[in-house]
Write a structure and sequence with these properties.
Layout: E1 9-12, E2 15-18, H1 20-28, E3 33-35, H2 43-56, E4 60-64, H3 67-76, E5 81-85, H4 89-96, E6 101-104, H5 108-111, H6 119-132, E7 137-140, E8 153-156
Parallel strand pairs: 3-4, 4-5, 5-6
Antiparallel strand pairs: 1-2, 6-8, 7-8
């Protein structure tokens, strides 16, 4: 992980803060996250998406929580890397590989299969994630195309929140 790379993050008292441009974009509400897909583990397709996100002006990129994909993305771009999973154990190795953010969700991949994530399950996933990665600070995230509330949870490595709670 390029922890000393000031374009991605700065180390301060054992926690990470995100690049100021990401924080600024999120505060203004104009961040652009390009998602390669929670179920996309094809390195060639992920590389193509990461390169397109980088060239297209994305704020950050979201990958399946796989350490090999994280390492690949870190070689291709200086954008912050978010990883998504619905199995908290997958986050540990992805963070060790250099993921800058984690997200419980991108549930859309499961909707076509008829799988829904209810509030109690999201809460349990959040608790398991926190027990595995206690340095993570959670924030609420809503998933697209779902009427369920709450629809998801996401996290980042820092001591400060960077997302408003969504009510819809």
């Amino acid at each position: 992980m390029r922890q000393n790379d000031p374009t991605i993050c700065q180390i301060r008292e054992d926690f990470m803060t995100l690049h100021p441009s990401l924080q600024s974009s999120l505060s203004r509400g104009n961040a652009l996250k390009v998602i390669s897909g929670l179920t996309n583990f094809n390195a060639d397709r992920v590389a193509a998406i990461v390169n397109a996100a980088d060239r297209g002006g994305a704020t950050f990129v979201d990958l399946a929580a796989d350490p090999n994909l994280v390492r690949l993305a870190k070689q291709l771009t200086r954008l912050p890397i978010c990883v998504s999973a619905v199995e908290p154990e997958q986050f540990v190795t992805a963070v060790e590989a250099g993921a800058d953010l984690i997200e419980i969700g991108n549930f859309d991949a499961f909707y076509a299969q008829g799988r829904r994530f209810e509030a109690a399950e999201v809460l349990e996933l959040t608790h398991r994630t926190r027990s595995l990665l206690p340095q993570i600070t959670p924030f609420r995230h809503r998933a697209a195309h779902s009427g369920a509330r709450p629809t998801g949870a996401a996290c980042r490595r820092t001591g400060q929140r960077w997302s408003r709670h969504h009510s819809n």
